[in-house]
Structure formats: C-alpha cells, structure tokens
Amino acid sequence: MEIAQNILLTIATAATPLLIAAIGELIVERSGVLNLGVEGMMVIGAVCGFAAAILTGNAWIGVAAGIAGGALLSLLFGFLTLSLATNQVATGLSLTLLGIGLSGLIGEGFVGKAGVRLPTLDIPVLTDIPLVGRLIFGQDPIFYMSIALTAGVMWFLFRTRAGLTLRSIGDNHKSAHALGIPVIRYRYLAVMFGGACAGLAGAHLSIVYTPQWVENMTAGRGWIALALVVFGSWRPWRVLAGAYLFGAVTIGQLHAQALGFGIPSQLLSSLPYLATIVVLVLISRDRRLTTMNTPASLGQPFVPDR
Description:
Layout: H1 2-30, H2 38-56, H3 59-83, H4 88-106, H5 133-137, H6 141-159, H7 161-171, H8 173-178, H9 183-209, H10 221-231, H11 236-258, H12 265-269, H13 271-285, H14 287-293
Helix pairs in contact: 1-6, 1-9, 1-10, 1-11, 2-3, 2-4, 2-9, 2-10, 3-4, 3-9, 6-7, 10-11, 10-13, 11-13
C-alpha cells in the first residue's frame, strides 16, 4: 500500500505542471489565439521562480516570480500578434526559442545550487489515512491550486457572461466586434492568463518537482500541454483527465527503468512523447469531434476597423 501511495503521489506531482500549463493555453485558444510559446514561457517561469526563491530564501516569492516571468513573456507575444497582427504560429515558435535561450542566460549562475522547496501540507490524522491520506491532504499547495484552477476555468467558461463572451470571440471575432465587444482587450487578458499559468507550471518544476535549475528543464512539457488542449477537445475536465494520463505515462516509464526491464532506457524515456503523437493521430481520425469543439477563429489574426 505504501508503494501504491508513493506512485500515486508522483503521478499527481508529474501531472500538475502539465495541467496548469494546458488550462492556461485552453483559455488562450478559446479566445481564438494560438500560442505555441508555452514551452518558452514555462522555462522562463522555472528559471525566474528558482532564482527568486534562491535570492530571497522564500519559495512563495519564487512562485510569484515564475508567474510574473511567464506573464511578461506572454505580453511580448500579445503585442506582436494582437497589436501588430503578426503570424501567430511563427511568433509562438520564436517565443519558445527566445525563452529557452533567455532562461539559459539568466540561469547560468544558478546551475548546481540547491533550491528552496515549497513545503507540502501536513494535516494531523488526515494525512495518515492509508493510501489516500497523503494523496489528498499531504500535497504541495500548487497541486491544490491546479485543481481549483481547473474548476474555476470550467465555471468561468460555461457559467459566466464573460466566459460566454470569450467563447464567442473565439468562434467569430468579426461578429463579436460588430456587437461592440472589445476583442483585442479580451485576447490580451487571455494571453496574459495563459502566460501566467505557464510561468506557474515552470515554477512548480523548479521549486516543487525538482528544486534545482537545469538548462531546458521543461524537457518538452510545454508541447505536451499544447497537445493536451486538443486531447481534451477544449474542455477543462477532459484536460484534467489527460494531464493525469500523461503524468502516469511519465512516472510509469521511470518505474519501468527502476525495475530493470529489458527495454532500452532511451525508448522508455520517449514514451510520454510517443503517447502524445499517438493520441493526436487518434483524435485527428474523428474530424467531426475535432471541428465541433475547435474555436472557429483559432489562429486567425484580427485587425479592428480603423
């Protein structure tokens, strides 16, 4: 039972950054904007969070710095794509390259230093419940934030007027503009929210998951988060399920290596990314489901009438 509990704990920890980054990108894409720079914003959040936590000795300041770093980088993307109407795909890819390079420069002096870990909760009696005690009552605070964030985004999108407005912009930005909705303002807010979530996901990696800084430590998780949005067909609860599925695949391959199965470690390490490709291929086969939930204006530039 102890082994099962530890496996579940590691799955939850591995799934948390994927879930947070994917939920942020879901809001961005629901507004009709395609930001492929999630990987770059995540790695900037990781280095900013780690550096701030080391310099101040406070992990919560590191979390705030990670959020701010991701949000600031997303503003650059927003300015280029929303104000200057540049190509969203090319700009997002450039943002990832910029984030990876800039994070290496910022984090050069922090390589090899011991980080400041965000403490986990410890509720007497409840944490000691077999199997589920530590899983439910003994996690790090960002885990609970990820669950609350998913529930909040679901409520916002489908139970509020602002969420309906955001979805209408993603489906038809021209009609929304004709009705007097400030399309650019909504999209800026959505892009900043997505950047803040990506930064928080990166800070979780460097402050909770592995409290250290290693160059390019996100290791493609931003791309998996992008795939999760499609996998979840732009629905928050499906993204939640997908994040934990991919978290299980990630942890499963680590346990498989530890047990010494006669499979090359390189192949086992590639399993999360192979799973991403397989899932996207399977989803693309059901074109009706994909087109039914995809925001119709996704990736299309919008220039309001002058």
